[in-house]
């Protein structure tokens, strides 16, 4: 065996996989453009990007990521800003490709994602695999010889193309693990592996993998993540003596927690919107504002986002935000392209569940912490 594909799941892991298969289908077809995700998808995307780039040392938090993607000025190193922009483009490329009926794993696709992740950065190699003389060590782990990389990647692509009985979540976990182990590129391996791992989830019908992204958790618990990889891989590339059992246990535990949080968020959306509709009715104001108010409670609401999600012109969206501001629901922050709208004190005082769940996901905390805070 030249790839890390063997594992021995215990009863707990089997139960997690059963729960995943039963729960992942719920609302799986909801995509970024669906009105039900208007309030939560941008914040989930920002947390995913901040999480994955942050694992590699990028200091930008989800709010700063939102500013970068909106074209606002951010006081940060140019390379860190570029990393965020690149990662967002790579995420979009990967998701769009995975949703095509004719998608097939290929070296070209893997090269493209790494090239996009690394474009314009100091160690940009245009997505090429490591070549002769380009040995690599990560901490105590010594990657395989660059002379073996082409054949190992050939084997990985063949495995990915095969239609075997491996469940999508396990395929995602093993893809993540093997790309880290092979370390086919000189840089960007972690970011590339996390994006490509999500492709298997999208291919299973989940159109918004950002809502079940594990990246924010991995950033907050980076040492736990590194320890899981170190425990699984050992000190050198040796799949025959290092099964993926520990990694599968780690990956399924975190992934199921994120999935449970996503479903809790989607379950809470109608209730939160109902609370906001009641508040608007009490003030004699348009009930359709409820979704916009929830979006403002969850993340940085901007004119462009409102226009995109409602199909309005930028001018019409700006006018709507002005009406919400004059009505006392929103407060503008920043200027020009950096302007966004925060919830007013009146809006912030309304008890809602979705904003708390989204903050937990963005912070990389476990779902149990939310239950403790809410006393449930």
Walk me through what this model shows:
There is one protein chain. By secondary structure, this protein is mainly alpha-helical. The chain folds into 2 domains: 34-260, Fic-like fold; 262-365, Arc Repressor Mutant, subunit A (Orthogonal Bundle), CATH 1.10.10. Helix content is 59%, strand content 3%. The protein is built from 17 helices and 4 strands. Strands 1-2 form a two-stranded antiparallel ribbon. The protein has a two-stranded antiparallel sheet with strand order 3-4. A hairpin with a 6-residue loop joins strand 3 and strand 4 (340-343). Helix 4 (78-98) runs parallel beside helix 8 and helix 10 (222-233) runs antiparallel to helix 11. The longest helix is centred in the C-terminal third of the chain and has 38 residues, at 245-282.
The CATH topology name of the largest domain reads Fic-like fold
| Gross CATH architecture of the largest domain | Orthogonal Bundle
How many discrete structural domains? 2
Strand segment tally = 4
Q: Rounded to an integer, what's the Rg over CA atoms?
A: 22 Å
* Percent in strands: under 5%
Write the H/E string, N to C. Answer: HHHHHEEHHHHHHHHHEEHHH
| C-alpha geometry | globular
Helix coverage percent:
55-70%
Q: CATH superfamily of the largest domain, please?
A: Fido-like domain
Number of helices: 17
Major beta sheet, strand line-up: 1-2
The main pleated sheet reads as: 2 strands, antiparallel
- Structural class of the helices, strands and pairings? mainly alpha
Mean pLDDT: 92
């Amino acid at each position: 065996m030249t790839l890390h594909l063997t594992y021995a799941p215990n009863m707990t892991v089997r139960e997690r996989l059963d729960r995943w298969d039963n729960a992942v289908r719920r609302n799986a077809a909801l995509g970024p453009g669906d009105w039900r995700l208007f309030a939560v998808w941008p914040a989930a995307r920002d947390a995913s990007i901040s999480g994955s780039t942050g694992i590699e040392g990028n200091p930008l938090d989800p709010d700063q990521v939102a500013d970068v993607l909106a074209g606002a000025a951010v006081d940060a190193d140019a390379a860190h800003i570029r990393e965020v922009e690149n990662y967002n483009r790579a995420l979009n490329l990967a998701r769009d490709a995975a949703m095509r009926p004719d998608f097939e794993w290929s070296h070209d696709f893997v090269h493209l994602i790494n090239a996009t992740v690394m474009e314009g950065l100091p160690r940009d190699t245009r997505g090429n695999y490591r070549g002769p003389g380009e040995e690599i060590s990560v901490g105590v782990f010594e990657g395989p010889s660059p002379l073996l990389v082409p054949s190992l990647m050939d084997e990985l692509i063949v495995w990915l193309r095969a239609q075997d009985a491996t469940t999508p979540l396990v395929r995602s976990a093993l893809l993540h693990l093997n790309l880290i182990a092979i370390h086919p590129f000189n840089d960007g391996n972690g970011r590339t592996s996390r994006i490509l791992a999500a492709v298997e989830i999208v291919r299973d019908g989940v159109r918004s993998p950002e809502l079940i992204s594990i990246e924010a958790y991995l950033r907050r618990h980076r040492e736990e993540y590194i320890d899981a990889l170190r425990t699984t891989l050992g000190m050198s590339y040796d799949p025959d003596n290092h099964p993926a059992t520990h990694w599968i246990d780690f990956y399924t535990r975190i992934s199921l927690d994120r999935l449970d949080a996503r479903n809790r968020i989607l379950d809470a959306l109608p209730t939160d919107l109902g609370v906001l509709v009641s508040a608007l009715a009490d003030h004699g104001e348009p009930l359709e504002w409820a979704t916009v108010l929830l979006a403002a409670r969850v993340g940085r609401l901007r004119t462009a986002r409102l226009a995109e999600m409602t199909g309005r012109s930028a001018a019409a969206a700006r006018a709507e935000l002005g009406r919400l501001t004059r009505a006392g629901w929103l407060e503008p922050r920043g200027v020009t392209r950096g302007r966004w709208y925060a919830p007013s004190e009146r809006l912030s005082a309304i008890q809602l569940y979705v904003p708390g769940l989204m903050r937990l996901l963005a912070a990389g905390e476990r779902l149990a912490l939310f239950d403790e805070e809410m006393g449930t």
